[in-house]
Amino acid sequence: MDKDQMYMELAVKEALKAKAIGEVPIGAVIVLNDEVIGAGYNLRETDQRSIAHAEMIAIDEACRRTGSWRLEDATMYVTLEPCPMCAGAIVLSRVKRVVYGASDPKGGCAGTLMNLLDESRFNHQSEVTRGVLEEECGRLLSDFFRELREKKKALKASSKNLQ
């Protein structure tokens, strides 16, 4: 197994933590010199904070652990392609490389809708590797949303039967 797959598996473990508490299962880890310096999973619903994305939490932890806002030699592994906010934070924290699992056709800003990570007008660009453990990462999300729809449908049906 190569390092990208190994670290993406750690990001998947973070995503499973989100799923366990009813959050959208997205996880991220940041690696520097073969050491995980930051990790996070989606906490948007739990914390009721729009910025509580896995990437933002991982960046915050990595900056605190390194004592610097510059993550110039670090690699971020994330299960879903970063959104515009997270892509911006990645650029601003100067992450060297981003590896993601599943593409995001509705909000992906690392190559799907646009690539903010390789925008030459910014003062920093990040190398992007797509599709690492893509099937597993995509399945986590599709299963989560399918189960959510089924629960809503069952709830609607049970409330209809009570009337």
From TrEMBL:
<dbReference type="InterPro" id="IPR016193">
    <property type="entry name" value="Cytidine_deaminase-like"/>
</dbReference>
<comment type="subunit">
    <text>Homodimer.</text>
</comment>
<dbReference type="InterPro" id="IPR058535">
    <property type="entry name" value="MafB19-deam"/>
</dbReference>
<feature type="active site" description="Proton donor">
    <location>
        <position position="55"/>
    </location>
</feature>
<dbReference type="InterPro" id="IPR016192">
    <property type="entry name" value="APOBEC/CMP_deaminase_Zn-bd"/>
</dbReference>
<dbReference type="GO" id="GO:0002100">
    <property type="term" value="P:tRNA wobble adenosine to inosine editing"/>
</dbReference>
<keyword id="KW-0378">Hydrolase</keyword>
<feature type="binding site">
    <location>
        <position position="86"/>
    </location>
    <ligand>
        <name>Zn(2+)</name>
    </ligand>
</feature>
<dbReference type="InterPro" id="IPR028883">
    <property type="entry name" value="tRNA_aden_deaminase"/>
</dbReference>
<feature type="binding site">
    <location>
        <position position="83"/>
    </location>
    <ligand>
        <name>Zn(2+)</name>
    </ligand>
</feature>
<keyword id="KW-0819">tRNA processing</keyword>
<keyword id="KW-0479">Metal-binding</keyword>
<dbReference type="GO" id="GO:0008270">
    <property type="term" value="F:zinc ion binding"/>
</dbReference>
<feature type="domain" description="CMP/dCMP-type deaminase">
    <location>
        <begin position="2"/>
        <end position="120"/>
    </location>
</feature>
<keyword id="KW-0862">Zinc</keyword>
<comment type="function">
    <text>Catalyzes the deamination of adenosine to inosine at the wobble position 34 of tRNA(Arg2).</text>
</comment>
<feature type="binding site">
    <location>
        <position position="53"/>
    </location>
    <ligand>
        <name>Zn(2+)</name>
    </ligand>
</feature>
<dbReference type="InterPro" id="IPR002125">
    <property type="entry name" value="CMP_dCMP_dom"/>
</dbReference>
<dbReference type="Pfam" id="PF14437">
    <property type="entry name" value="MafB19-deam"/>
</dbReference>
<comment type="similarity">
    <text>Belongs to the cytidine and deoxycytidylate deaminase family. ADAT2 subfamily.</text>
</comment>
<dbReference type="GO" id="GO:0052717">
    <property type="term" value="F:tRNA-specific adenosine-34 deaminase activity"/>
</dbReference>
<protein>
    <recommendedName>
        <fullName>tRNA-specific adenosine deaminase</fullName>
        <ecNumber>3.5.4.33</ecNumber>
    </recommendedName>
</protein>
